Amino acid sequence: MRRKPIVAIDGPAGAGKSTIAKIVARELGFLYIDTGAMYRAMTWKMLKCKVNFKDENKIIQIANKTNIELKQLKDKLKVSVDGTDVTKKIRTEIITKNVNTIAAIQGVRKVLRSKQHKIGQKGGIVMEGRDIGTTVFPSAEKKFYLDAKPKERALRRWKELKAEGKRGSLENIAAAIRKRDYRDRNRRVSPLIKAKDAIVIDSTALTLHQVAQKILNEINKP
Ligand code: CDP
Q1: Cβ neighbours, 10 Å, residue 203
Q2: Which of 143, 148, 145 minimizes the C-alpha distance to 206?
Q3: In terms of CATH, what superfamily is 1-30+123-211?
Q4: CB atoms < 10 A from the CB of 9, how many?
Q5: Which CATH architecture is the domain 35-111 placed in?
Q6: Neighbour-count burial for 134-159, b at 16+ CB within 10 Å, e otherwise
Q7: pLDDT tens string 37-91
Q8: Mean pLDDT of the residues in the chain
Q9: What's the pLDDT at 167?
Q10: What are phi and psi of 169, to 5 degrees?
């Protein structure tokens, strides 16, 4: 029997990938994997070890020995590092600020890519990140590149933070997103780019459910 499809969703920060990937996975009865959470978890570990961020060899050595687990609970993904629950800890500002330094290291990506492969190779998965359709699963059956105008992405992030009771000016959030996207797009290894065969969806003027529906319609096309 042919395996179930692999659905890859890539795009910049704040484009709505996580929420949409979760809805799509739930509708299809597929597993949902947030690869950004893996890079965040690795960053948490490096900060905990107080490793010098310039010491790539040491970072790769630690990455090879770090056990990251994603467990799908009812409506969220539980993330643990070597048995410690870091689900909330990986969403803090210090992680967001440092994550793309760790994500730009080839040896770290190799470790996480091989993990992502193991999880996804049987299909029946919605995997979201920056390089899923280009590097992790270049032969994924369905690829999407989710984007939105920078102003809208910053506004969404601002609302998210506000809902969590955190503060931050819209200008600062927009600047932080700009910086992170620039670094993700311009790194040497697996930069954020649209896969040639990815379907682009601009979600600026769409609701989450409209975007999810567009993706589901594409997936259900014969
Ligand atoms: O904040 P947001 O949800 O947009 O980002 P994320 O998906 O949690 O990813 C955090 C960071 O991890 C990104 O800015 C990238 O530097 C890195 N990342 C990556 O390099 N490759 C992936 N497949 C996923 C995330």
Answers
A1: 24
A2: 148
A3: P-loop containing nucleotide triphosphate hydrolases (3.40.50.300)
A4: 28
A5: 3-Layer(aba) Sandwich (3.40)
A6: bbbbeebebbbbbbbebebbbbbbbe
A7: 999 999 999 999 999 999 999 999 999 999 999 998 877 899 999 999 999 999 9
A8: 94
A9: 80
A10: -80, 150
**Which residues sit with their C-beta closer than 6 Å to ligand 1?**
13-14, 18, 35-36, 39-40, 99-100, 103, 129-131, 180, 184
Q: Ligand 1 centroid vs 99 CA: distance in angstroms? A: 7
Tokens of 121: 């190779």
Q: Cα of 93 to ligand 1 centre, how many Å? A: 13
Question: What's the one-letter identity of residue 214?
Answer: K
Q: Whose CA is nearest to atom 23 of ligand 1?
A: 129
Closest C-alpha to ligand 1, atom 11:
36
Is-above-0.85 flag for pTM? yes
| Locus of tokens 């955190």 | 166
Six-digit token string for 27: 């509708």
Q: Whose CA is nearest to atom 10 of ligand 1?
A: 36
